[in-house]
Amino acid sequence: MNRQHLGAITAVLSGVLLAACASHEPKKTEPAKAAASKPIGPQTAGYTTLINNAGEPVYCVKKTPTGSNVARTTICMTAKEWERARENDQQTLNDIRKDYNPPKF
């Protein structure tokens, strides 16, 4: 195959690829604001749902402790307990941020 044929084939393939890309409409995505307003919690985050002795739904998740690739622990709590844990974590982060004094250069 000579260089003229190779150049012609390259030009034809390039044209086909460009036409294929240009012929599809871009996918419409949901605005970020609407996606952020959806509830996020154990009910929607892929947790396993069980029923405790009191008849309440309990949401369980398997966690891998930091520094381990093997050990797994299962944490099960009610929706109220998960919300309380989330609020405590958020408060801890807020306290750390409030007390943080970055070095001045």
Main beta-sheet annotation: 3 strands, antiparallel
The arrangement of helices and strands along the chain is HHEEEH
Distance between the termini: 65 Å
Query: Strand content of the residues, in percent?
Result: 15-25%
Per DSSP E runs of 2 or more residues, the count of β-strands stands at 3
* Structural class designation: alpha+beta
Structure description:
The chain has 105 residues and is α+β, with helices and mostly antiparallel strands. It has a domain at 45-100. It has helices at residues 3-22, 32-36, 79-99; strands at 48-51, 57-63, 73-77. 44% of the residues lie in helices and 15% in strands. The longest helix is centred in the C-terminal third of the chain and has 21 residues, at 79-99. Residues 31-37 have low confidence and may be disordered.
